[in-house]
Amino acid sequence: MPNIDTARVVLPVRSQLEAYNAKDIDAFLKWWAPNCEYYSFPSTLLARGHDEIRLRHEERFREPDLHGYLHSRSVVGNLVVDCETVTRNFPEGKGEVDVIGLYEVEDDLIVRAWFKMGQMRLV
Question: Which residues in the chain belong to E strands, given as ranges?
């Protein structure tokens, strides 16, 4: 097994979360491979490539309270697991949802990601 630089694996995941919280779609997409795949865990493809991910996030980035709070991060090889609580503006009101994100990183970009969402709760 090749020697993996953990800092290089974490960099795109950390940076895309920072861009997510800044609601900067271009900075966000910079860390995703052009042909990346974005899944609802375990295998429902939600978006493929920058255009589809942009469409999925542009409206979300207009939410005034959008913020991902990172609780923990683990790295195994080229996989990064983030446990977060995301604050969103749902149709029912401001709320939170717990999220586990699993990111596969190759050549300093996220090539695939899977997201497991918890139950939304209003705050």
Answer: 32-40, 44-48, 67-76, 79-90, 93-106, 109-117, 121-122
